[in-house]
Amino acid sequence: MGLLLAKLLGINSVPDVLISVLFSVLPDLDHFMHLEKAFKTGRFGVESRSLLHELVGLILILFGSLVVKIVYSHLLLVALSCGLSHFAVDFLTRPSRPLHPFSHKEVDLKLYPRGLKEMFVCDMILTAALALIYVMIALI
């Protein structure tokens, strides 16, 4: 999603694309601590998220975007859009706790399967669709 957004925003140079990728995946760095449990249980849920997700992660993305604006002002929009799109996609496809750590209330829109294998298949389909759109835009 981050690469597609960067392309749509006219970002083409490698250093600029790296900023978009960094902001796109930054919230998922917390998953490394929970991978073993997720594979054993066959499920990724809200328990696989740390403070990088939800409200604290959102604040970090906003703060990081401001730092990017100071150093590379032309990348503010791509940093914001890539970081925020991560939270939007997670909210639409996974259970989340939007106000964590202040509230532990879980929100699940149930738009996506919960089994690890089914999630993997849906993630691959979504990724392939976004990659196809990216390639189509790149060819224009």
How would you describe the overall organization of this protein?
It is a single chain. The protein is mainly alpha-helical. The chain has one domain.
Summarize this, please?
With 140 residues, the protein is an all-alpha fold. The chain contains 6 helices and no strands.
Order of helices and strands: HHHHHH
Which class best fits the helix and strand makeup?
mainly alpha
End-to-end gap? 18 Å
* Structure annotation, total helices: 6
How helix-rich are the residues, as a percent range? Answer: 55-70%
Low-confidence stretches: none
What value does the Rg take, in angstroms?
16 Å
Write down the domain tally: 1
User: What's the total number of strands?
Assistant: 0
Report mean pLDDT, rounded to a whole number: 86
Q: How would a textbook summarize the main sheet?
A: none
Question: What share of residues are in beta strands?
Answer: under 5%
Q: What does the overall shape look like?
A: globular
